[in-house]
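Review the following:
>
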Amino acid sequence: MRIVVIGAYGLIGSYVTARLLADGHAVVGVGRDLVQARRRFPAVDWKAADLRTASIADWTALLAGADAVVNCAGALQDGPRDDLKAVHAAAVARIVEACEATGTRLVHISAVGVAPGRADPFGATKQLAEALIAQSRIAWIVLRPGLVIAPAAYGGTALLRALAAFPLLIPAVHAQARVQTVAADEVAAAVALAVQPETPAGQSLDLVHAEQVPLADILTRLRAWIGLAPAPVLNLPAALAAIPAKVADALAFLGWRSPLRSTALEQLSLGVAGNAADAERLGLSLKSLDQTLAAMPSGVQERWFAKAWLAKPLILATLCAFWLVSGLIGLTVSRDAAIALLTSAHLPEPLAQAFVVGGGVVDVALALLVAHRRTARLALLGMIAVTIGYLTGGAIVRPDLWLDPLGPLVKSIPAAVLALAALAILDER
C-alpha cells in the first residue's frame, strides 16, 4: 500500500513510519523541516507541507495514488510557530476534503480525553477535528493514545524523565493525577491495523492500558528505570508551578516550545484517562507501564538525557547573561580602561576604540541571538569563534594577561566549552 504520514518525523510519527516501512508499505512522509528527516528515514518519499497553509489542492496532489493517510501532526499551545485552530481544525478540514476527492482512507491521531464540551483551546480544537472527520463521507478511524511511552523522548515524556532524575527529590505538580499509558510501538501497531481496508471504518478508539497510575508513581518508576536511587516525590502546589509555566509561555515567542507551558499543566490536571477496552476492537492487548519499561531497558544515554534536559535551559540562560553583561560592561563602565589596556600595548587609539566598541556590540548581539531558538546554533558557534579570536588577539597584544591573577583570558575558556556543551544538546528531537 502507498501510505502518506503527516508529521512522520515526530515522536509518534517516527514509530508509525518505521512500522509501516517494516510492513512493506511505500511511505510518503509530510512535514515542515525535512533535512534531518531525510537522513533518518532515507526509504521515505519526503514531501514538504505546512499544515497551517497547505490548501485543499496541495493535499489532493499529495494524496493522489495513496491508499491511506495517517495524520500524526498536532500542536500543544498557540504561539508564533503554532496555531491550534489552523493545525487541529482548519488543516484537518482540508485534508478531509482531499480524502473525499481522492478516496483515501484517513487514520487520525487525536488525544485521549477529547470529548464534546471541552472549553480549553487544545481540547476544543481536537474535538472540532474529530467532529469534522465523523461528519465526513470518507473511510476514517480516530485513534486516541494516552501518555505515549517510548525509548525516545520528546515534550512531556522528556520532562517526566528530567523530573524523575532530579537530584535528591522528585518535584511534581498534580502528583495524584491518574494517567493511563500506551507504548509507542503499540500506537504504531494500531495504525498498521487501522490503515487496512478490511478494518471497519467509522471508529473512535482510545489506546490506553487499563491501569490508572498516579503521576507520582510514574515518576518513581521512571527513576528506577533510569537506574537512579529512590527519592521522595515533592508535590508542589499548582500555583507555584504556574510561575515557570508563564515563563515557558513567554519563551514560546522566542521559538522555544517547552512542555512546561500552561496547556501542559492544564491537561495534566484533567488526568489522562480513556477506555482500555477500545484496543481490543483492533485485536490488540496493550502492555502495562511496567511491561513497557521492561521491554525497553535503559542505558547510560537515558541517564545522560534525563540529567541534561533541565540543565539545557540553565546553560543557555547562563551564556545569554554572560555575553550580555560582558558586552554591556565593555561598552559602559570598563570602556575607557579597556581602551587604555590596548593603547598601552602600542595599539593606535582609534583602532583600540574600534576593537572595544565592536567587541561589546558583538557580545550583546550574540546574547540576543542565543536567546532565540532559530538563531541559537549560529550564536553558539559565534561565541566559540569570538572566544578564539579574543584569546588569539590577547596572546598577540598582551600575552602577559595569561598570567594575570584575575585570569581575564583564562576565564574565557570555560564560556567557550559551555557553548560547545550547549551545541551538543541543542536539538529538540
Observations:
- The chain has a mean pLDDT of 89.
- Residues 349-370 form the longest helix (22 residues).
- The radius of gyration is 26 Å.
